[in-house]
Every structure is written in C-alpha cells, then in structure tokens.
Amino acid sequence: MTQTREPTSPKQASSAEQIAALTKTIHRLEAELATYKETGAQISRFANQLRTAAEVSKQLSSILELDPLLREVVTLLKERFELYHVHVYLLDGDNSTLRMVAGSGSVGERLRDRRHTIALDTEHSLVARAARDGYTILVDDVSLEPDFLPNPLLPNTRCELAVPLILGRHVLGVLDVQDDRSHRFDQLDLATFSSISGHIATAIQNAHLFEEQKEAENALRRYAERLQSLHQIDQAILTAQSPESIARKAIECLKTIVPYHRASFTMFDYENSRAHVVSVTNGDETSLMEGDYSLDPNTETLALINKGPIFGALDKLQPSLPFFNTLMNGGTRSILIYPLHTHEKLMGTLNLGRETADSFDESEVTAVGEIAAPLAIAIEQARLYEQVKQHAQVLEEQNLELAQFAYVASHDLQEPLRIVISYVQLLQRRYGGQFDEDADLFFHYIVDGALRMRDLINGLLDYSYLGRSGSPFTVTNCNDVLAEALANLQVTITETGAIIHADPLPTLLGDAVQLRQLWQNLISNAIKFSADQPEVFIGCRNEGREWLFWVQDNGIGLDIEYAERIFAIFQRLHTLEEYPGTGIGLAICKKIVERHNGRIWVESQPGEGATFYFTLPT
C-alpha cells in the first residue's frame, strides 16, 4: 500500500528553519563559551605565574650574596612551578665557559661539587646555544632535538627551556628549566620565565656589586690593619737598640699581617764570612735555630736570594743553607725567605715558615717587602751605632787616660820645678854679682824659664781639670757671672784704662764657675791684644734654640787663616816678648763652650780688631 506525504505547509517550514538556526546559535555560543573559559583559565594561570614570579623576585631582592641567591632561585622555581629540575649557569670571566653554579636537589649539589661546566662553543647543548645566540630555546620533546645534550644524572628529562640571563646587552649566564613531561611549556611559560630571568640577572648584578663593595671594604680594612701593624713595627724599631732586638720585634709584629709558625732573622758578616741567626719562635726548637754559620759553602744560594724573595713549598725549593735548614725543622712545609738590602748589598734575610704547603702568596710577599726596606735601614743604622758607640767608648777611655796622665804628670812636675826655682833664686841672691855679667844673665834666664814652665803646668792642670770634673748645670744669671769676671780683672782694666760696654745678658742653665772663666779669658784676651786704649763690646742675641754671645775688641786683629789654630792648646801667633801668655786660654774657652753644647769661633781682619762669638742653648 502506497503512502503519500502530505505537503508541508509554509508555517511548518518556517518553524524548522528557526529551530536549525537556533541550534546553530547554541553551538556557536557553546564554542565561544568554551573559548572564553579556556582564555580565562589561561589568564588565570598567567596571573598566577606572574604573582609567583613577583613573589620569587621579591624574595630574591632581599638576598645580596651570590651563592645563597642562586640556591634560593633554583629551589623556589622548582617548588613553585612544580618542575623536574632547575639549573643556573654563569659565564666565566673569559666568556668561554658556562659554569654550573646552582642546581636544585641532590643532583644539583653533585653537579656543583663536580664543578660541572659546558664550553660555550659546545654544538649539542641547548644551554650553550641560548648563551651564544642570546635567545630563549624551547624544546617540547628532547628526543627529537639534535642539540639536546643529555645528562646521565637527569634521565627523566622530556622537555627543556633554556633562558639567557641578560643585563643590558651582556649575557651573564643561562637559566635552564627541565620537566619530565613533554610539551610542558607554552608561550605563557616563555613569557613568565623570560620575566623571571630579567629579575635574576638584576639580582646577580646586585650580588656582584655587593661582593665588590664588600671586597673593597675588606681591602680597605686590611689596608688600615696593615698600616696599623706597620706603625707598630716602626715604633718597635725606634724603641729597640741592637740589630737583633730590632729584627725580633719587627718579626713579632709582622705576625699580625703575615701569620707564620716559625721565623728567624739572619744577618751576614762578610768580613768574617759568618751568618748570625736570631730566632723569634717560641718553643723547644728555638735554641736549635740560633747561632753562627759559615757563609763560604753557600755562595750560590746567597746569589739566588740576592735576586729576590724565595717562597713556596719546601719540597720544591730545597735551599741548601744550614741556617734555613734549622727553620725547616718541626713540620715546616712552606717557607718565605725575603732579602734585606742596604746600599744594594745583601745584609740579611727574614725567614718565615708554615706547616702547610704553598701557603705564602704574592700579597703576603708584598706585605713582607713593605717592612723589609725600613727594617734593613734600621738594622744597619743600629749596627753602625753600636760600632760608633764602641769607638766612642774607646775614645772616651783614652781621653780619660790622657787627662789623668796630664793631671798626674803636671802635678808631679810641680814639686821638682819648685825645687829648681827655689835653688836657682837662692843661688841668684847668694852669689849674684860675684860672677861676670853673663852669669847673672844666665841666672835670669833660668828663673824666667822655670816660672814660665810653672805657668804652663798650671794651665795644663786647669785644662785637664775641665775634662775630669765640673759642677752640675743650674739656673745661672749671666749678668752676675760677667760682673764676677770683671771684678777679677779689675786690676788689669784699671792699669790699661780699658772701657767695657756690656748689654743685658740672659739667664740660662750652665756651670757658673766655668762660664765666669769663659768671660774672664775672652775679656782678658781682648784687652791684651787691643790698641793703646782697649775698648771691649759685650752683647748677645736670642736665635730661637740658642743664645748668640760676642766679645768684640778694637785690637790688632788676626788673619782669618789662623781662626781655628788659636783654639788649639799651646798654639800662639806671637812671641812671648810681644804678648805674654801660655797659649791655653782660648783652648779652655773652647772646652767650656763645648761642654755646654755650644760653638765658638772668631771673625777678624788684621788691624781691625776681632770678634769672638759663642753660642749656648736656650
């Protein structure tokens, strides 16, 4: 039976079209809704990643030291982003090697302990490629990537993201992120880790700057400590007396700059071909280190030391000098031998020892060198001072012996000379006139010569007395001293009609008795060698550390070539017939002035008088 379809009415057709259109709209809205949901999820995930990145950056900004900073980086990223592994590589100074400086987990610690590195020109390395090109490298499936360099410690790596750490235009290193799921990272992850890498690069730069600042502060502190130690060494050198004590104190102070276990100082005596060793090491071995050693068999080693410091491991150096071998006893494994030069001559060495091999570095050698030059000078000066002191002591003993001899000799001559004078005068009184005129003249010459001999002996006694004794210095008014001297010369002043002009004189420390004799000798000398009416001018002037005195006359003067000679004992410029005297007066003046730490000299021209100057400390 055939069925026939009834024709659709226009109304029915219109309703079907509306249903189809409505269904299509519903499908489109569902698709848009799904898209919105996916976009919202992506936005939410990106926002979460940005928040996480912000939190990570905030935590990193509070860490200023590089190693803690990078360890925190890998730990935070692994935990917050639920990653398989995180590495941070930094370029070395020559920009040829990437060094793994931080890694997450135990694998990261093992790689760091191994000092894991990747050469920048390594072909099959995503990390090296990211550093070379300066772009982020993303591999969704490492099994399909020929540039992937597998790490046997990370067998589960399936995808990898290598992000260069860039500051300005400079690549500092690479942030390497790995996961055990393929296609783990998308464009949002790339944007997030790129942002984080920028924060990490800035944090690394800040850590570098902080380290540089800290190193600069440490260097400044070490420099200040070194200056303080050098100052202490200088003070120790100044207070020490002998070369040995100077070296001992200097090396003891040096220990604050360059620590050591054993130390000694060697001083060379080339005249006797000996090396004298002084130890500054505490302990039982000290006595074994000190002593004298021969230089003869060690010329080659001395020549080597003379060229510069020797330092390093003992088994590599093996110096042959016996006094260095003593330093090496007791477990010493490294040494520093620094030469001490004066006038380009090797005068000694500083010898330091440590119980660790290769422990002395260039900076410590430089520090020892800073004290080597002043120490060598101080030791040489101390050695010269000891020699001068020994010579001075010998001269002082000889001078005392000579003074004692002069005193004893002149004192012992007094008695026989007095007998000669007495008996000659007795013969002259008893037998005078009974012989011829020549006999009377001979008597006169004998008596006159004996009397002059007595005056010379008395002058010698006075001169030697000055060298053997004298009153302690006291506050002395020079006006009173001059008045006493003029009173003693009053007879001579009256007989010659001398005119004396005297300025006010100061008060100072001195021996009043000797200063009176000084004024008396100079004024008497001025009157003796003056014109018909002697005129003497006495004055002074303050010149800071000393007073300058002068005694000026209007006498015959003298040639300046004799200015030094007249202060020597028994030196005369005229005969006794012209001007009487013993020739000792000015020598006594010179000795008195020198005992008062002053100077004396004369300025004169023949026929124009003379001015005697002398100084006394204020």
Give a description of the structure:
Helices cover 51% and strands 20% of the residues. It has a 6-stranded antiparallel sheet with strand order 3-2-1-6-5-4, sandwiched between helices. Strands 9-8-7-12-11-10 form a 6-stranded antiparallel sheet, sandwiched between helices. It has a 5-stranded mixed sheet with strand order 14-16-17-19-18. α6 runs antiparallel to α11 and α13 packs across α15. A hairpin with a 3-residue loop joins β16 and β17. It has 4 domains: 156 residues, GAF domain (Beta-Lactamase, 2-Layer Sandwich); 119 residues, Beta-Lactamase (2-Layer Sandwich); 72 residues; 148 residues, Heat Shock Protein 90. With 618 residues, the protein is of the alpha+beta class.
In short:
The protein has 618 residues and is an alpha+beta fold.
What is the CATH superfamily of the largest domain?
A: GAF domain
The CATH topology assignment of the largest domain is Beta-Lactamase
**Rg over C-alpha atoms, rounded to the nearest angstrom:** 52 Å
The low-pLDDT segments are 283-288, 572-582
CATH architecture annotation of the largest domain: 2-Layer Sandwich
Classification by helices and strands: alpha+beta
- Widest sheet: strand ordering: 3-2-1-6-5-4
Number of strands: 19
Q: How are the secondary structure elements laid out?
A:
Blueprint: H1 10-61, H2 66-80, E1 85-91, E2 97-103, H3 105-113, E3 117-119, H4 126-133, E4 137-139, E5 159-167, E6 170-179, H5 187-239, H6 243-254, E7 262-269, E8 274-279, H7 286-289, E9 291-294, H8 299-306, E10 310-313, H9 314-317, H10 322-325, E11 334-342, E12 345-354, H11 362-431, H12 437-468, E13 474-477, H13 478-488, H14 490-496, E14 499-502, E15 507-510, H15 512-528, E16 535-542, E17 546-553, H16 585-595, E18 600-604, E19 610-617
Parallel strand pairs: 14-16
Antiparallel strand pairs: 1-2, 1-6, 2-3, 4-5, 5-6, 7-8, 7-12, 8-9, 10-11, 11-12, 13-15, 16-17, 17-19, 18-19
